[in-house]
Fold this protein.
Amino acid sequence: MPRTTSVVEPPGLTTNRAPFIEEAQRDGRLYIHQPYELYSGENHQAWRRLFARMTPRWERYANEHFLQGIHSLCLDPQRVPKLEDVNRFLQPLTGFQAKAVSGYIPAFVFFDCLRNRSFPTTITIRPSDKLDYLPEPDIFHDVAGHVPMHTDKAFAEALVRFGECAHTAAELAAGIRDEAEQVHRLTSIIKAMARFFWFTIEFGLMRGKGGLRVYGSGLLSSYGEIEHAIDSREVQRYPIQLEWAINQGFAIDHYQPLLFVVDSFDHLFSLVDQLEKWMRAGKLNNVAPGEPQVNERDLKSFLQAATE
Ligand SMILES: [Fe+2]
């Protein structure tokens, strides 16, 4: 019997339902191109709605370097960005580039990309009926939340320096003969690095001319939490102390109750420097237990780098 045909919206490049991405993951391809023609009308609509409702919140809560970055990148509020367009504006400023990936990147590979001024970038976008919460990154988080920060020279240098710390960790691990001790120390160092990244690059606050402002990308891409981070009385905000940040666990499924404040991106750079010194001095070998858990792939990526 002939079936009636109806117009079905193509799957597009929607988070968790993009055949193009599933295929890349099945083939084990981490780095991919951005098949721009696959974005559906719904995908562009999701970008448009996310961008429109965030704009007034950025103006109110985001730090000035981010606002300058949004301006410099000339992002189109109407359509999902093409990474090659983004890179054309970004690269001359700091050498950074957004590089399309198929999904999860093992920790060492991710940090090593930062060291090489390339930022692994998700190309899928959340469904237009789920604009608020998504556990996994999407192109709005990565390009509207992270990439504008990469236009700032001082911030970019801090990020590169952080990438170098991953090499230091692998180098230190290479010098440990006992396998159990090697895994123990490396797990603790990765945990410390992940916590530092979380409390700065993802959820950091900065004191500036206009008062407290957001520079962390997890906040910059969240309509609800950006306001909560600055205005809510439920949030504890403290000047960052490295020893606290690397020993502090966190949960990813609710608004952060504890945030740390830096004075400037030069201050952030000096903290990354200190993190590396502490790593070399063995002060990251036994950080407090708790979240995040270090998974097998992250650990293996560092162990493999240690053998190279
Ligand atoms: Fe992120």
The CA atoms of residues 250 and 291 lie 6 Å apart. The chain is about 50% helix and 10% strand.
